[in-house]
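ingest -> validate -> predict -> emit
validate: passed (alphabet ok, no gaps, 254 aa)
predict: started
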Amino acid sequence: MLPSYIIMFEKTEGIVLRAIEYKDTDKLLTVLTRDLGKVTFKARGVKSKNSKLRAADQLFAYSEFTVTDYQGRFVIKEAVCKELFAELQTDIELLSLASYFVQICDTVAQESDPAPELLSLLLNALYALSKLKLPQTMVKAVFELRTACIAGFLPDLRACAVCGREDPDRFNITQGVLQCATCRSEEVNGIRMPVSSGVLNAMRYICSADPKRLFSFRLSEESYAELSQITESYLTMRLERGFSALDFYKSLFL
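emit:
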């Protein structure tokens, strides 16, 4: 048994999802980490001018944290910022869309439940928006559908759930299955949305692709819009909630 005076430190990597003012110079950071899941870190003195933690306390900042457990709460002792995604802070559309992504992660991630896949997805999505400049509707759709899969809502995209046809033209967002327009059954009911063959193939790709190649497909702008509408409806239906950042993002295009 270690003596009580020995302080144990732990290192983990994560992205800041939320930052809340706490007392005069401190903040409480909600961080999505690779091995601790969603966790709250106390950043002491981070609001002081000379704090070495200031870069790591910003929204979307990806850092390596060295933390210690003090009176039941993780306190940051050191933070090395690896990526700030500064481009997201200067574009209102990118900022609101990225904020939507972190709100989703804040909802899906669990405390003390390692989240390496979700963290990697968020990192890749923020990189795709800020560095690769990929179409926003594409990145949004990929993030939504892949998050649904990670959260345990993997849709069945093999064939029509009623007749077995492999190229149906409807996606049932209530049950997460495919149907043909003319197929109905008491067992398979709910809200259905039209899905074109190209978009269906993209959905199948997103659900099964290697994480490093998630964004390695291309569609027309119209198909990206169709895909985005379907994935948004499916994820919000499954999570049974809306998102303020998404509402603001959509208001920018009215």
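Residues 9-83 form a domain with the OB fold (Dihydrolipoamide Acetyltransferase, E2P) fold (CATH 2.40.50.140).
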